[in-house]
Amino acid sequence: GKMSRKTSGKKKQVTIKNDKQKKAPREKSRKEVVAWEATGIALFVLSWVCIILPAVLSDSEGHLSYGWIFLLLFFVLCISSVVVLIRIFPEAAVLDMEKGVDKYLNRDFTKIADAGKQTMEERLKKHGFRETEEGFYRKKKFSFTKDAVCYYVALTDAEYPGKTCDNITSRMERIQEKTKATCEIVFLYRTELTQSDRDWLKNTAAMDIAMETVLPTAEGHSVIPVLVDSATGVGEYLAKTGGISIYAHGCRLLKKLCRK
User: Mapped to the 3 state alphabet, what secondary structure does the chain carry?
Assistant: First the structure.
């Protein structure tokens, strides 16, 4: 009898191991993540109930016979809620990222009717932008949510928009800028815009917007690429006007710049 029990135990262990191996790569569904988030929040609320309840239950002189139990429960529930929320955070962030990217991939571009180089230069100067020795137009603006945002605008010909944009960004990052929040707006002029240029723009911008929405920071560097058809002077970019992200600040500035 003992022998058979031992072997069956071994079998169980083996199957559990295999199950674990199968389950490891599986990501939690949105419903599961939401359920875990709700559990974490519920535990946190309960922990505070344990602090408030003794005050309600104690007698007129403030005595409560089992007060220490409530205190212990508060710590246990509070720590559990933090553990649950920390554990689920990476998966919740990934799901929010995917949702955000999908949302902006389905958005249409915002068009700028006249984004010709000369017109843009005049607009920038009119709005108080100063030309820097690195070839950018720079302006620092006060912002309630970010203290200040420093804008750098580049107007450049781009046969390969993605590559050009990366080069300009690395050039910008070498500038010793003291402002913690910087927004770079890059006008990329191309003789013939292709579908792959537009796909690059859509993917890059959707990713940046989603990233800033899911993990917002008071400082950082955001890039808004604007593709311009040199022949027609029509510019297009992926806009996000709501919110307090650096990208959204840049889009609001673009809107103001390009008002008729």
Answer: CHHHHHHHHHHHHHHHHHHHHHHCCCCCCHHHHHHHHHHHHHHHHHHHHHHHHHHHHCCCCCCCCCHHHHHHHHHHHHHHHHHHHHHHHHHHHHHHHHHHHHHHHCCCCEEECCCCHHHHHHHHHHCCCEECCCCCEEEEEEECCCEEEEEEEEEEECCCHHHHHHHHHHHHHCCCCCCCEEEEEEEEEECCCCHHHHHHHHHHHHHHHHHHHHCCCCCEEEEEEEEEECCCCCEEECCCCCCCCHHHHHHHHHHHHCCC
